[in-house]
Amino acid sequence: MLIYVYILGVYMAKKVIQNKSNDKNQRIHSWRLCPYGRHWVREHSMHTPPSNKNPDGSTTIRHAHCANNP
Q1: Is the pLDDT of residue 19 over 70?
Q2: End-to-end alpha-carbon separation of the chain, Å?
Q3: How far is CA 2 from CA 38, 45, 59, in A?
Q4: In this predicted model, what pLDDT tens digit does every residue of 21-34 receive, in sequence order?
Q5: Which of 37, 47, 56, 62 is found 20 to 30 A from 23 (Cα to Cα)?
Q6: What distance in Å separates the CA atoms of residue 22 and residue 30, rounded to the nearest whole number?
Q7: What pTM was computed for the model?
Q8: Are 35 and 67 in contact (CB under 8 A)?
Q9: In the predicted model, what is the mean pLDDT of residues 41-70?
């Protein structure tokens, strides 16, 4: 199921995974974007360091996503 979320002036599509057999992955509140144990990370740039395959390195854009809590 897709829902549309308004964050920082932009509507973003968010795929909601509903797993009825596992209560931990279910959304707790309608305003909560991520299940318990995860938090919302906004879109940001990410630097990939140089390697043998890509000697110059690169900068990419990571889209908004749910990440595990530390």
Answers
A1: no
A2: 27
A3: 19, 24, 29
A4: 455 556 677 788 88
A5: 62
A6: 18
A7: 0.50
A8: no
A9: 92
Structure tokens at 62: 């990571």
Range of the domain at 40: 2-68
Q: Alpha-carbon distance 54 to 6, whole Å?
A: 36
The position carrying tokens 């931990």 is 24
CB 33 within 8 A of CB 26: no
Give me the residue label for tokens 């968010």: 14
- CB under 8 Å to 17, separation ≥6 — which residues? 25
User: Which residue, among 12, 16, 68, has the nearest Cα to 40 in the 3D structure?
Assistant: 68
Percentage of the chain lying above the pLDDT 90 cut = 39
Show the tokens assigned to 13: 């599509």
Question: Going by C-beta distance under 8 Å and a sequence separation of 6 or more, which residues neighbour residue 69?
Answer: 37, 38, 39
